[in-house]
Amino acid sequence: MTYAGDTSQFEISNRSTGKPRIALMGEFSAGKSTLCNLILGETVLPTKVTATRLPPVWVAKGDTGPIRMDRSGQIHEVDLDGLDRIRPDNTRYIKVHKSAELLDLCDFVDMPGISDPNMSSLAWDDVIVETDAVIWCTHATQAWRQSEAAAWQSLPEKIRDRSLLLLTRIDKLIAERDRTRVLRRIEQETAGGFRGIYPISLTDAMAAGEDPDLLRDAGAEAFANGLVALLSDLGSLQR
Amino acid sequence: MNIETDIQALETDLAVDAPETSFTRHDLSALDPLAVRQQALSKILDDLIKVGDRATIERTRKLQARLGEFEPAITMIGQVKAGKTSLVNAMIGRPALLPADVNPWTSVVTSLHLDPKMSAAQNSARFEFLDRMDWDRLVKGGGRIGELARRAGAESELQRVTDQVAALREKSRKRLGSKFEMLLGQEHDYGFFDNELIERYVCLGDDFEDDTETSKDRGRFADITKAAHIHMAHEAAPIKLCVRDTPGVNDTFLVREQITMKAIRGSQLCVVVLAAHQALSSVDMALVRLISNLKSRDVIIFVNRIDELADPKTQVPEIRASLTETLKAHHGPEDAEIIFGSAAWASHLLNDTLTELDAQSADALLNYTRAQLDTLPHGLSDQEIVWHLSGLSGLQRAVANRIASGAAETALQGIERHVRNLLNGIKISDAQSGAARQDSAPKEIDAQSAQADFAELEKEISGSFETGMSKLHTTFADRIARVHESYLDRATAALVQHLETAGDGTVWSYDPTGLRMLLRSSYQTYAKRSKDLISQVFTVGAEDLCGFFERVAGVPPESFEISPPQAAPAPEPVVLGKTIALDLQSSWWATWLQSKTSARLQSDKFRKLIEAETAPIMTALLDDYAASIRDDAQSQLNELLDEQRQVLTRMTQGDEAHFALTSKREARIEMVNSGLVTLDTVFKGEAD
Ligand SMILES: Nc1nc2c(ncn2[C@@H]2O[C@H](COP(=O)(O)OP(=O)(O)OP(=O)(O)O)[C@@H](O)[C@H]2O)c(=O)[nH]1
Ligand SMILES: Nc1nc2c(ncn2[C@@H]2O[C@H](COP(=O)(O)OP(=O)(O)O)[C@@H](O)[C@H]2O)c(=O)[nH]1
Ligand SMILES: [Mg+2]
Ligand SMILES: [Mg+2]
Fold first, then answer.
1. pTM for the complete prediction?
2. What is the pLDDT of residues B614-661, one digit of tens each?
3. CB contact, 8 Å: B278 with chain A?
4. Are B389 and B372 in contact (CB under 8 A)?
5. In chain B, how long is the greatest CA-to-CA distance?
6. Which residues lie below 8 Å from residue A109, measured CB to CB, with a gap of 6+?
7. Which of B208, B539, B579, B596 satisfies CB 3.0 to 4.6 Å to A188 for a cystine?
8. Residues less than 5 Å from ion ligand 3, measured at CB
9. Which residues on adjacent β-strands are paired with residue A197?
10. Interchain pair A115, B283: CB under 8 A
């Protein structure tokens, strides 16, 4: 169904809210959608171990129902339960409205995986230019492949300087020594290119609920602090 | 002599050798028949040495050597950190042998040569360093990646590569001293190996400070090492096997792409190792390209790390479906067998540390056990169940089955035919030259004219081979030249159209898949036709040779048989998977395509570029792949002719040699007859 009301709020180029926009990027299955769900405090996005073939999902504060922006600029109402039926090739992005507190400070865009062989990542360049910072998710066990380094390098420098790197699935590196070794290597390879690097277990953080000890152990606390500092630098905390 | 008991004895020998503790032994049992055949051949050849004349002994030694080289190879390729090395270690039952790590690690193609007959005291290792030429190409031009970047005009890539190479050189200088380049082209040999020794050569080592003791020596030689060979005693293998670990797609400068391709070409089987949580992404397309030039039956896909899945029961089928879809969409080997498993479970089992599995891994194991319960064989012990669920059992069974029914089987049969011909030749010349003939006196042979006749026949057979092959070769060369030309035309036209119609900033690329597919099918046609021709020449040649012996020496055709050699399987055109500029991310091309020169000029430049990139593939197809089919067949044919010339010589030879022969005649006749019966028994069911 085509949307009938005010459509300007659905234009990604409309920056009138003044809120920074944070893109979640990385390879498929790196945990972008899991992170998004963690931040929102509810399961909004489908997560699965194979590539989720979704267009970018823009999440912002609000109570309007979800819509889909097609490639010709038409806006369609969509059903959240039917997200995975949306065909990425004729969709620029999906916009979802939620009430999570963090959304007062910024919007999030859950991007498709960069290396899904069945989907070209170039199709989303026009969405990326409308974002201000990136949270890059990389599997701790296969972290920072050349393809990731290359894709990251191709982002505008302005965005890169504000980006955070999450080493997700850190729960799969059990020995402390292994974690350190991976972290050291990534620090060395990214050579200060990120504002911060955060090892994190998204699933442990999900399961932690409100328990501060568990959240700390999962790496969520350090990441939350990093994110707050980023948002503060982006100016959204002052307003 | 009782043949049946002999064979039974061989079989029990094999069974007794097997260590009780090894899971592997059972999984590889499909190789037992090969072992029986190999040992039967080996015994016949040993016996022949005792009773043969000089020429026979010489020939026998050659066949012994060939039999000794019989070592089917399996190559592991795969994603970075998929667990290739851990899997190799689990397969040979030594979880800590090759160095594995959480960071990118293996940097050298490492061949483990497993030998059931060797003792551990004979273990040895050899490490070969890169050639001067490879190294120069790397440091001067940034290797193959530098060449690609330069051709694609990707300035920033080129800069990145140049920087990385400089860093690499500096690292090697630090590790090995300023004269390290003197090592190039050399090798290091050791009469033993251990984990620490191997670590010095085959793993990357750390670029960052790590304060452990061993870290300084790790990877000391890695950047200049080309290949590692570990020879080790391994009772659990019924026959010699070679298992190769590779850096796979973990190769920064594509220096070793060629080496990896060579490894694949020299292997009977490729195991493609993927990580369950990210099975096949677009980074892995180089991998798919490599394997899509192999037959599905020569590829096994192992999806490792299922212990890391939260719910293997439902996720494994999901991953399988997604993999199949991706392989299909990208013209990969979609029918390849897919096995799921976990090298981690297998290692814990082998180390007897299953109780130390972390909670999630243990949950996954339980979850997967429930899912697989119905498919498990009955009566397994708990440990055997884990071995099954780890996928190692399935992997080894699959490996053994493919080897037993594939090229390795054909290779053994090839040797068998030569042994058979040798035995038949001796039999018939003994009959001819001696008193063993009961019914009729042998026909008197005029040696000189017989030799001349033979030469004539030889010329005829070789002639028909050469004419036929050269015609096929020319047709093939013409065909791929046309394919190449028309691809260049189409690609250039597409570019011109793009430049004329699209604005700056839009990205353009031209998919080389079409070229690869056309080249592949041209090659396959050539391979098929040459196989037909070769088989025809061999069969007719063998018949003509029989006819010759009947004509010249009155050998009744029913008492003499010449087995024609079997045309060797054509090498799969792995070279088609070589990464070329067009495969690279289109971002590389961005600046190049936005250059302001005219469309005409740009397209000329483009054409030259693709031509330069694809020409080496064309050359390899013709001068390497196609030529090797021809040359292999040529040497098989020469061998057949030499073999039979030998028979003729024995029939007509002078008194002295004859005397030597006579003294062992009784033993020989008995040996030859029993040898032939053994061959019939052991190789029965051979498809002809
Ligand atoms: N959980 C889990 N870990 C595994 C498995 N297989 C390997 N690992 C671990 O993952 C890491 C990488 O394993 P390797 O065997 O070095 O991987 P590789 O594919 O050889 O890596 P490169 O040679 O660097 O390409 C090591 O820390 C292994 O212990 C598995 O099935 N499950
Ligand atoms: N163990 C573990 N699993 C994770 C973690 N993050 C994500 N996953 C799992 O990885 C899979 C892919 O996650 P998803 O968010 O869909 O990845 P996306 O493609 O980047 O959006 C899901 O099955 C998640 O449950 C983590 O930190 N630890
Ligand atoms: Mg997702
Ligand atoms: Mg390895």
1. 0.90
2. 999 999 999 999 999 999 999 999 999 999 999 998 887 754 455 555
3. yes
4. yes
5. 93
6. A21, A22, A23, A24, A56, A57, A58, A59, A93, A127, A131
7. B208
8. A 32-33, 52
9. A165
10. yes
pLDDT band at B183 (very low <50, low <70, confident <90, very high): very high
CB of B513 within 8 Å of any CB in chain A?
A: no
- Among A122, A173, A187, the residue with its CB nearest the CB of B586 is A122
- The closest alpha carbon to B402, from B121, B78, B662, B27, belongs to B27
Predicted pLDDT at B655: 44
Whether the CB of B277 is below 8 Å from some CB of chain A: the reply is yes
| Token pair recorded at residue B104 | 């990118």
The alpha carbon of B554 and the centre of ligand 2 are apart by a number of angstroms equal to 80
B16-44 pLDDT, tens per residue? 333 334 566 689 999 999 999 999 999 99
- With bands split at pLDDT 50, 70 and 90, how would you rate the model's confidence at A34? very high
Q: Name which of A52, B621, B292, B204 is nearest B284 in CA terms.
A: B292
- Residues 6 or more apart whose Cβ sits within 8 Å of residue B10: B36, B39, B40
Q: Does B148 touch chain A (CB under 8 A)?
A: no
B579 close to B286: Cβ distance less than 8 angstroms? yes
Q: For residue A134, give the nearest of A56, A54, A215, A48 by alpha carbon.
A: A56
Place of tokens 């030594």: B94
Query: CA-CA distance, A136 to A23, in Å (whole number)?
Result: 8
What ipTM did this prediction achieve? Answer: 0.89
Q: Do B171 and B207 contact (CB within 8 A), yes or no?
A: yes
Q: Is A115 in the pocket of ligand 2 (CB under 6 A)?
A: no
Q: Is the CB of A203 under 6 A from ligand 2?
A: yes
Instruction: Provide mean pLDDT across the span A8-29.
Output: 89
Nearest residue on chain B to A191, alpha-carbon basis: B208
DSSP B349-402: HHHT-GGG--HHHHHHHHHHHHHHGGGSPTT--HHHHHHHHTTHHHHHHHHHHH
Q: Which residues of chain A neighbour B277 with C-beta distances below 8 Å?
A: 29, 49, 139, 141, 169
How far apart are alpha carbons B180 and A129 in whole angstroms?
47
pLDDT band at residue B7, thresholds of 50, 70 and 90? very low
A111 lines ligand 2 (CB under 6 A): no
B278: which chain A residues are within 8 Å (Cβ-Cβ)? 27-30, 139, 142
Distance from CA of B604 to the nearest CA of A (A): 27
Within 80-139 of A, beta carbons closer than 8 Å to B belong to 113-118, 122, 139
Residues of chain B found within 8 Å of residue A122, distances taken between Cβ atoms: 507, 586
Mean pLDDT of chain A: 88
**Test site for ligand 1: of B75, B79, B85, B86, most ligand atoms within 8 A of the Cβ:** B86
Least Cα separation, residue B421 to chain A (angstroms):
53
What was the pLDDT predicted at A4? Answer: 65
Which residue CA neighbors atom 25 of ligand 1 most closely?
Answer: B80
Superfamily (CATH H level) for A19-58+101-233: P-loop containing nucleotide triphosphate hydrolases (3.40.50.300)
pLDDT at B17: 36
Say if A154 is an interface residue toward chain B (CB within 8 Å).
yes
CA distances from B378 to B138, B373, B382, B397, B400 (A): 55, 10, 11, 17, 22
List the one residue out of B517, B611, B578 whose CA is nearest residue B251. B578
Q: Which helix (H) or strand (E) holds B647?
A: helix B627-652
Residue nearest (by alpha carbon) to ligand 2 atom 2: A169
Q: Where are the alpha helices (DSSP H) in B177-247?
A: 195-202
Kindly tell me if the per-residue pLDDT of B504 is higher than 80.
no
State how far the Cα of B581 lies from the Cα of B606, in Å rounded to an integer. 11
Whose C-alpha lies nearest to ligand 2, atom 12? A29
SS3 A162: coil
- Percent of chain B scored above 70 by pLDDT? 87
